[in-house]
Amino acid sequence: MSKERERNLTLEDLEGERWPEPSAESTGLVKTVHRLRRRPVGELTAYELGRLIGQDVGLRWTLPPALEILRETAPAQNDGGFYDDDLLSAVLTRKASTWAAHPDLTREMREILHLLTDLSPYIERDVKKFLEASEGIA
Prior knowledge:
Elements: H1 3-7, H2 11-15, H3 28-36, H4 46-54, H5 59-78, H6 85-92, H7 96-101, H8 103-115, H9 121-133
């Protein structure tokens, strides 16, 4: 399936799995994740992708657009503009097994990190852990 076609589908469509409605007692995060799974992947914002990625939801389809956003916004970060640390942190802190399963995405993330400067100490810590965990994958 083409990347463009995938972006027009929801995570429910792509995974072939419909989650039941969350209970009334569910947290706001749980309700949000359920709602976001029903939106086309290509319509998800950086914030929404960060929420899904942070919960390890649909990584096969959410990581690629997240990396595109991070790559596109890297020049603005280097010029002192806004950079989405939440999205970057969500992406960087995925399990090593996720990156091992997707060496092409690992390679791309490592390239993006080389574009970034002047990151916060918290993000620098996440970068260091990612680089150590992904050593030899890509």
